[in-house]
Design brief:
508 residues; alpha/beta; Transcription Regulator spoIIAA; two-stranded antiparallel ribbon; 8% strand; elongated
Length: 508
């Protein structure tokens, strides 16, 4: 009993030690860097959240509450440390019609349902399908997002005033030059504080955060959407919730992969999917709109030194601190300073090496990347660009592997013609396969189809082989199939009809 008791104690200590180590690795490996990075992100989140709220047609506080709730919740249960999730533009665009036609309460209900669907998708391990997204689509996604980030800043500084241009330029210079001398404090934070102080005490005429919308100094409170709980309501909110859940997960999982590459670490994508779902459920019950991962803010976080969950948590908490405690100062932050930060983010986000390698990589990869970028920029919808890139990649892949080579060898001594088939036989390659055969009477009496370097994939391939064999037999040829691998042999046995009585060349 004593030995068993000691064993249990050792086991508990071991489990506690592993938990403590995991807690430290995810939360406290980089406390100073995470706190400072979180502060920078919080400052950049405010105008973004307000702008996205305006896009959706709701009060600015809806976006701010969503950003606070989602960032805090995801910091605990997300699968990708240092990634920032909050209210986003892509999600806001999908809400416009719903809010216009049915009102804000239906938006809160839709946000909750979005979270439920995302949690279900995470439980079903939908993240495993990420492996089907080619690198060219990922690069296109990143480059398109960099362009969209830049385009979103244009209305805030182009044609405003010469002073705005100067402040943007000075902000860019601070962010670019300061890291060459010190990295103790993130350069974007220094730039925002410096420009804000200059604008306030220099009485500069600049557009500020307060010009975007009113900020209320109050915490979000728990509420249940005031809507009828019936099938009609479900029919109203389900289409929007499904679209939001898919777009949100797509952006979140792609952003997670990008942060993985930036930090040279791995993450649990299924856990992230479930976490996004729970975060949106919480946001909906606290008066927020649905959100997802933000690649721009995630890049700011990582580039500012954020590496752990603490950075995401600080971003959410400090965002609310700014609103509640420092609201009077926050509204005075010049938009030009935040524009400068986001322009630098867009420059850092864009994969400039992809331009240099466009002539080196296969042409199809370059086309996929360009189509992804153009589609996203034209539609302002990241999901449409990604889907277009995936479909185009699939078409190129099918075209590439649909080439079938048939080599014909005749042997006069034993009156035999051998067809050596090389390639993948499936719906896209069967036409070329059939055309490679000659069905004239001048052929040798014995015909062998050698599939040693081929693979039969589907019903179309079996039907094509049926057609060839039956036509050859119709010309009184002795036909043999050789070299079939186990999988091809099994498929042929199940579907082929050429050896059945009264079989016809038309297939089955």
């Amino acid at each position: 009993m004593r030995v068993r008791s000691q064993f249990i104690k050792l086991k508990r200590r071991s489990v506690f030690h592993l938990f403590a180590q995991k807690l430290h690795n995810e939360w406290f490996p980089n406390v100073k860097g995470d706190i400072l990075a979180g502060i920078v992100v919080a400052l950049a989140l405010i105008p973004e959240a307000i702008a996205f709220s305006i896009i959706a047609g709701v009060d600015p506080m809806v976006g701010l509450y969503a950003s606070f709730c989602i960032a805090v919740v995801i910091s605990f249960i997300g699968g990708r440390p240092a990634m920032i999730s909050a209210a986003t533009g892509a999600m806001a665009l999908l809400m416009v019609t719903l809010v216009k036609d049915h009102g804000i309460e239906y938006l809160f209900a839709t946000t909750i349902l979005t979270g439920i669907l995302q949690f279900i998708f995470g439980a079903l391990k939908i993240a495993r399908f990420m492996k089907f997204i080619p690198r060219s689509v990922m690069v296109g996604f990143v480059n398109a997002l960099a362009i969209l980030i830049f385009m979103a800043q244009v209305p805030h500084f182009v044609g405003i005033s010469n002073l705005t241009y100067i402040v943007v330029a000075v902000t860019l210079l601070i962010i670019y030059i300061l890291p060459r001398f010190t990295k103790v404090v993130p350069a974007p934070l220094v730039a925002i504080v410096a420009m804000t102080v200059l604008a306030i005490f220099g009485h500069l005429e600049l557009r500020t955060v307060g010009d975007l919308g009113n900020i209320t100094s109050s915490l979000p409170s728990f509420m249940i959407p005031d809507i009828p709980l019936n099938l009609d309501t479900l029919m109203i909110i389900f289409p929007t919730a499904l679209a939001l859940s898919i777009v949100g997960l797509l952006e979140s999982l792609l952003t997670a992969s990008i942060v993985d590459d930036m930090t040279d670490t791995d993450s649990d994508k299924n856990k992230e999917s479930r976490g996004q779902g729970i975060a949106n459920i919480v946001a909906g019950f606290f008066g927020g709109m649905a959100g997802c991962a933000m690649i721009g803010q995630s890049v700011i976080n990582v580039k500012s030194g954020g590496r752990g969950r603490l950075s995401t948590f600080v971003a959410g908490v400090f965002l609310m601190f700014l609103i509640i405690v420092l609201g009077d100062w926050v509204v005075k932050i010049p938009m030009a300073a935040l524009v400068g930060v986001m322009i630098m983010v867009s420059i850092g986000t864009f994969d400039w090496s992809s331009l240099r390698t466009m002539t080196k990589v296969p042409l199809t990869d370059s086309i996929v990347m360009v189509v992804t970028v153009v589609t996203v920029v034209a539609t302002h919808d990241l999901s449409k660009g990604v889907f277009a890139g995936i479909i185009l990649s699939a078409i190129f892949f099918v075209a590439k592997i649909s080439k079938v080579h048939v080599k014909i060898t005749s042997n006069s001594s034993n009156q035999e013609t051998v067809y050596d088939i090389k390639g993948q036989l499936f719906f896209a390659s069967v036409q070329d396969f059939v055309k490679a055969f000659s069905f004239s009477d001048q052929q040798k009496e014995k015909v062998t189809l050698n599939f040693a370097e081929a693979h039969i994939w589907d019903d179309s391939a079996v039907a094509a082989i049926d057609k060839v064999v039956l036509k050859l037999k119709g010309n009184n040829k002795d036909v043999h199939l050789t070299g079939l691998n186990d999988a091809s042999k099994k498929l042929m046995k199940k579907l082929a009809t050429y050896d059945q009585p009264n079989a016809k060349p038309s297939g089955h």
